[in-house]
Amino acid sequence: MHCPFCRHADSRVVDSRTSDDGASIRRRRQCPECNRRFTTVETASLSVVKRSGVTEPFSREKVVNGVRKACQGRPVSDDDLALLAQRVEETIRASGTAELDAYEIGLTILGPLRELDEVAYLRFASVYQAFNSLEDFEAAITVLRAERDVASSSDPAGPGDDEARSEQ
């Protein structure tokens, strides 16, 4: 690490701390030449390999912009989109892979988006998974209904039991 003051080619780490979200490390450094101190922030870089073969840095903003189109007219806030992008990045970082295909990122988006808004999920999936017919939509809707039925049947109270309890 070059000193930003005298451009000396070396520096000594005085202190290291993780940032609030744990995704980066803040290091306090000192130059052995001019003895001035400076701070660096280090993050592990994630790269996205596009279909064309071009590699670019991962961007939460691109995730948000892609999902925002699917969420137009839906009750989804900008905060919801930011949290979704954060979950996607955390999932990607947890995989331990520094370079991912754009397609894999899209697959990673589908799960959190389904939880956020089913209609937006269907819109995104229809483009992303190249739905070609009504049957593709029907199959995706059937899967969503089946998952919802499984989730509601695993609820210990069961559907409609809240009303029965309130009458007692």
Automatic annotation (TrEMBL):
Keyword Acyltransferase found: no
Zn finger region (unnamed): 3-34
Protein name, as recorded: Transcriptional repressor NrdR
Family statement drawn from the similarity comment of this UniProt entry: Belongs to the NrdR family.
Cofactor entry: Zn(2+)
InterPro entries per the UniProt record, alphabetical: ATP-cone_dom, NrdR-like_N, RNR_NrdR-like
Cofactor note: Binds 1 zinc ion.
One Pfam family linked to the record: ATP-cone
Gene: nrdR
Region (Disordered): 148-168
Cited function: Negatively regulates transcription of bacterial ribonucleotide reductase nrd genes and operons by binding to NrdR-boxes.
Record PANTHER family: TRANSCRIPTIONAL REPRESSOR NRDR
Organism: Cellulomonas chengniuliangii
Key words of the record: ATP-binding, DNA-binding, Metal-binding, Nucleotide-binding, Repressor, Transcription, Transcription regulation, Zinc, Zinc-finger
Domain ATP-cone: 46-136
Source organism superkingdom: Bacteria
Lineage of the species this protein comes from: Bacteria, Bacillati, Actinomycetota, Actinomycetes, Micrococcales
Residues spanning the signal sequence: none
